[in-house]
Every structure is written in structure tokens, then in C-alpha cells.
């Protein structure tokens, strides 16, 4: 038996030697991080978890305004952390305006207005909160200009922030601005049909107006463009020019849950049906990259596809621009081989190598209408059911659609 065990040990040693010969390592030992560093990272992770979970419970309404939350000791026991970690988390939520600490009584969920403000001081405040999506977006800048024009003429000031398509930032800024403003104008996040922080505003009766898009599962005041009409007009234009295979393209930045995208899609489908143009899945160009994570290869591959549509209606001007650049890289001619129509009419649209046919939105007017509606809500000039304001769009015909070629060609030429 000992002889057999000895043979097995020798075989094991040989195997280890062989393994190390083909998988060399510098040190055959476990390297552990310093205990203090590991503990600090664990505590930071727990701190973040406590802040996130308490914030979510407050904004969802699970922890109601004015309610007393658990003591530091109880929270520390629940999360198995020190009271110091809990104290830091509660301090962060207090800075965000979600909690207030009352000496000798405990920590409470803060009411929609700070405890030290009275009805006498609130009217003098006259602030409007605005949370838009991106600081560098041209439509956002037009919206802000329009909002400022509307509210300043009524004696209000604007405090604004940007969500950068981050739900935690949006929820935090809603909670913060709710404490110092009389109402909010909000640009909802993409790819969702509802939002818990915005729903909470409606539940507590805090005035707000949505701009650019609405939330499908929440009936509220909003001001938007006629996205369905714009989508219909763009597609109709391509059909009238003679195109039979007309595609619809959108990026990951906004899918069909984003109501502005969905409504443009519905206008596109309506025009196809009315002009008896066929539709199949190859005409729907989805999952395209965003301006935050551009990928030229995907646009190039789409343009090279053998079943590529002869014309494409893109959900916005940025997607249209990327197709025009992809066409230039791959030798596809715009509009001779591929016609393009965008949506937005951004400042660069008419200055492209092939000026872009697009659907224009009234960004400044949208902002002005939103500001006016919100103040009318605040001052009780508008009461009752939610107001839905839809502003008309306009098709701007330039060269990318092929209309000019159509006009210049002889009657015997094939339409582009």
C-alpha cells in the first residue's frame, strides 16, 4: 500500500513539474492586498449601496415625506457596517435634500419644501427648474433659450441641470430642484415608458411639464413636435420621388420605447401603407451606434448591404450624417444610389457635402410653450386634465433626397 502511495506521489510531483514547465510563474504564492485597503474598498461599496437603496425608497414613495427612518444603529446592523459609514450615507442624502436631521428626534424624509421656508417667502423665490438631456445637444440649447424667454417675461428665473441620460442623476436633480423651485420642465430619458421620479411628482401634485417626448405610461403635461406628421411627410416625399424600398433607421440612443422615435416610426409606416409601398424587416435599420460611441464600420456595412433600401428616413440628423459619411467612404453616391432624409434640421444640415433634406423642429417655440404652460399651472391659470401641446414640423427639401435630380432629369430618365 505504501509503495502504491509513493508511486502516486511521484506521479503528482512529475505532473506539477510538467505544468510549471509550460506555465511558468514568477512567484508560486498567493498575493493578498493590504488588509486596510481591502476594508476601505468594502466600506466604500457599502456606503454607495446604502445611499442608492435609501434614495430609491424615498423617490419611489416607499418612504413617505415626513416619515422617520431607521436609526443609525439599526441601519448599521442591517448592512453590517459601522455607524460612521451610515452617518456618511445619511449626510449625503441630506445634502441632496432628501433627508433632514432634527436634533433629539432623528432623521426624517424631507417634505417637498424646506422646513424653514414659509408661504411668505416662497412667492419671492419664483424659480423654475429645467433638467435637459445633454449640455452639448443643439436641440437642448434651443429649448433652454425658449424656456428662458417665456419665464423671464413672467418674473421667474431658471435653474437648470443635465441628466446625461443617467437615471440616478435625473432622480437626484429632481429631488434637489424640487426643494428650491415652483415647478420643473423635464426632458425624459430615452428608452423607457415611465420614470419613478417623475411619477412621484405627479403623485404629490408638484407642477411639471415634459418636453421633446412624453412617457407612454404616464399622462402628464407635455410639449412635443408633431413627430408622427414629420415621419409621414418625410416618407411620403420619398415615395412621391419614386422610391419603392424606403428604410427607417435609428440608433441605440433611442428605441421604440422613446415616444419621439416611436411616433416618427408610426408616421413612416402610415405613409408606406397609403402609398402602397412594401415593408419587410430588411428596411428597418436598428441598433446603430450613437454619437457617444461612434462605430463607422457598422454604418459602412449597412451601406454595403446587397438588400440596402434605395432611400432611408433616419430618426435624426446625426444618423443621416453618419450614413452620408459612410456613403463617401464606400463609394455610394448620395442621392444617385441612396437617398437620405433626416429629422431635426440642425445647424450643419444645409452645409454638408450633400445638403441634407430633413424635417425641421421648432426647438425655441417648444421651450417657450413649455415655460408658459408650466407658469400657468403654477399660477393656477390652467387647471384640470393634462395638456398635450403638439407643434407642427416642416419638411426642408435640399439635395440628399434626389428631388433636384428628379426635376433636372428628362422624362425618360429613371427617377433617383
TrEMBL record:
<feature type="domain" description="HTH gntR-type">
    <location>
        <begin position="44"/>
        <end position="112"/>
    </location>
</feature>
<dbReference type="InterPro" id="IPR036390">
    <property type="entry name" value="WH_DNA-bd_sf"/>
</dbReference>
<dbReference type="InterPro" id="IPR046335">
    <property type="entry name" value="LacI/GalR-like_sensor"/>
</dbReference>
<keyword id="KW-0805">Transcription regulation</keyword>
<dbReference type="InterPro" id="IPR028082">
    <property type="entry name" value="Peripla_BP_I"/>
</dbReference>
<protein>
    <submittedName>
        <fullName>GntR family transcriptional regulator</fullName>
    </submittedName>
</protein>
<keyword id="KW-0804">Transcription</keyword>
<dbReference type="Pfam" id="PF00392">
    <property type="entry name" value="GntR"/>
</dbReference>
<dbReference type="InterPro" id="IPR000524">
    <property type="entry name" value="Tscrpt_reg_HTH_GntR"/>
</dbReference>
<keyword id="KW-0238">DNA-binding</keyword>
<dbReference type="InterPro" id="IPR036388">
    <property type="entry name" value="WH-like_DNA-bd_sf"/>
</dbReference>
<dbReference type="Pfam" id="PF13377">
    <property type="entry name" value="Peripla_BP_3"/>
</dbReference>
Amino acid at each position: 500500500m505504501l509503495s502504491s502511495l509513493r508511486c502516486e506521489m511521484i506521479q503528482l510531483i512529475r505532473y506539477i513539474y510538467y505544468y510549471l514547465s509550460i506555465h511558468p510563474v514568477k512567484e508560486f504564492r498567493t498575493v493578498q492586498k493590504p488588509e486596510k485597503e481591502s476594508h476601505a474598498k468594502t466600506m466604500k461599496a457599502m456606503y454607495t449601496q446604502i445611499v442608492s437603496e435609501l434614495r430609491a425608497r424615498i423617490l419611489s414613495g416607499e418612504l413617505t415625506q415626513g416619515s422617520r427612518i431607521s436609526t443609525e444603529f439599526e441601519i448599521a446592523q442591517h448592512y453590517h457596517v459601522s455607524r460612521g459609514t451610515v452617518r456618511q450615507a445619511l449626510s449625503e442624502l441630506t445634502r441632496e435634500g432628501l433627508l433632514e436631521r432634527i436634533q433629539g428626534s432623528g432623521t426624517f424624509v424631507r417634505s417637498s419644501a424646506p422646513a424653514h421656508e414659509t408661504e411668505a417667502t416662497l412667492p419671492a423665490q419664483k424659480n423654475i427648474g429645467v433638467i435637459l438631456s445633454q449640455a452639448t445637444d443643439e436641440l437642448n440649447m434651443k429649448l433652454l433659450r425658449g424656456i428662458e424667454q417665456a419665464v423671464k417675461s413672467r418674473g421667474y428665473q431658471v435653474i437648470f441641470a443635465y441628466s446625461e441620460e443617467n437615471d440616478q442623476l435625473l432622480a437626484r436633480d429632481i429631488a434637489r430642484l424640487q426643494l428650491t423651485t415652483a415647478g420643473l420642465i423635464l426632458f425624459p430619458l430615452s428608452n423607457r415608458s415611465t420614470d419613478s421620479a417623475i411619477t412621484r411628482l405627479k403623485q404629490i401634485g408638484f407642477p411639471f411639464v415634459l418636453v421633446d417626448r412624453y412617457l407612454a405610461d404616464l399622462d402628464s403635461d407635455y410639449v412635443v413636435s408633431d413627430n408622427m406628421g414629420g415621419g409621414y411627410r418625410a416618407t411620403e416625399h420619398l415615395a412621391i420621388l419614386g422610391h419603392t424600398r424606403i428604410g427607417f433607421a435609428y440608433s441605440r440612443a433611442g428605441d421604440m420605447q422613446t415616444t419621439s422615435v416611436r411616433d416618427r416610426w408610426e408616421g413612416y409606416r402610415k405613409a408606406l401603407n397609403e402609398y402602397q409601398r412594401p415593408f419587410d424587416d430588411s428596411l428597418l435599420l436598428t441598433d446603430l451606434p450613437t454619437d457617444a460611441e461612434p462605430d463607422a464600420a457598422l454604418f459602412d456595412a449597412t451601406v454595403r448591404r446587397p438588400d440596402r433600401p434605395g432611400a432611408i428616413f433616419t430618426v435624426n440628423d446625426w444618423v443621416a450624417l453618419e450614413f452620408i459619411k459612410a456613403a463617401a467612404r464606400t463609394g455610394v453616391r448620395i442621392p444617385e444610389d441612396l437617398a437620405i432624409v433626416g429629422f431635426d434640421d440642425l445647424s450643419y444640415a444645409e452645409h454638408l457635402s450633400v445638403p441634407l433634406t430633413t424635417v425641421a423642429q421648432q426647438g425655441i417655440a417648444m421651450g417657450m410653450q413649455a415655460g408658459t404652460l408650466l407658469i400657468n399651472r403654477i399660477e393656477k391659470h390652467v387647471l384640470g386634465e393634462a395638456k398635450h401641446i403638439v407643434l407642427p414640423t416642416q419638411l426642408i427639401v435640399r439635395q440628399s433626397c434626389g428631388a433636384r435630380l428628379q426635376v433636372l432629369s428628362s422624362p425618360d430618365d429613371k427617377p433617383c
